[in-house]
């Protein structure tokens, strides 16, 4: 069976804000954008679909930001619990956790400081920190040797 990952979709409250966040804070580059109409309603299980889609890529990973003009978005935008069923987080390997965390805050995301975890492993330190995008999507920063 041939199979390859196409992209990861993220519903966002403010498409322009999220586009800036993923580009400026995390270095994703916009590849293309398009409108999606009611012809995709059955696939999405949403009536009256009218949305703008922006595809952003970095290091072979593509994220699709979905900005629903109609019928709008739902949900609280809260950071979901790790043991809540479904998508839990986007994990990024970084060379400087603090630098990326500052960029995330500067661009409208949040740092969850109490999640900072440093673990020794064979004479080096592993460094982990959870952050969120502007809509509460959990982003894991991890520095590995």
List the uncertain runs.
none
CATH topology of the largest domain: 2,3-Dihydroxybiphenyl 1,2-Dioxygenase, domain 1
CATH architectural arrangement of the largest domain: Roll
Which strand-content bin applies to the residues? 35-45%
Query: Quaternary state, please?
Result: single chain
> For the report, how would you describe the main beta sheet?
4 strands, mixed
Order of helices and strands: EHEHEEEHEEE
Shape: elongated
Radius of gyration: 17 Å
Q: Within the largest sheet, what's the order of strands?
A: 1-4-3-2
The percentage helix is 10-25%
Describe the structure.
The chain is of the alpha/beta class and 145 residues long. The protein folds into two domains: 63 residues, 2,3-Dihydroxybiphenyl 1,2-Dioxygenase, domain 1 (Roll); 54 residues, 2,3-Dihydroxybiphenyl 1,2-Dioxygenase, domain 1, CATH 3.10.180.10. The protein has three helices and eight strands, in the order βαβαβββαβββ. The strands form two sheets. It has a four-stranded mixed β-sheet, with helices on one face. A four-stranded mixed β-sheet has the order 5-8-7-6. A hairpin with a 5-residue loop joins strand 7 and strand 8. The radius of gyration is 17 Å and the shape is elongated.
């Amino acid at each position: 069976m041939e199979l390859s990952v196409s992209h990861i979709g993220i519903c966002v409250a403010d498409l322009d804000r999220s586009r800036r966040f993923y580009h400026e804070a995390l270095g994703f580059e916009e590849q293309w954008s398009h409108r999606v109409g009611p012809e995709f309603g059955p696939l999405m299980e949403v009536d009256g679909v009218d949305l703008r889609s922006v595809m952003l890529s970095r290091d072979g990973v593509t994220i699709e930001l979905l900005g629903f003009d109609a019928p709008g978005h739902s949900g609280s935008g809260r950071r979901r619990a790790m043991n809540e069923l479904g998508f839990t987080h986007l994990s990024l390997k970084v060379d400087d956790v603090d630098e990326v965390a500052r960029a995330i805050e500067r661009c409208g995301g949040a740092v969850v400081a109490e999640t900072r975890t440093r673990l020794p492993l064979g004479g080096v330190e592993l460094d982990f920190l959870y952050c969120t995008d502007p809509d509460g999507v959990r982003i894991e920063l991890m520095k590995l040797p």
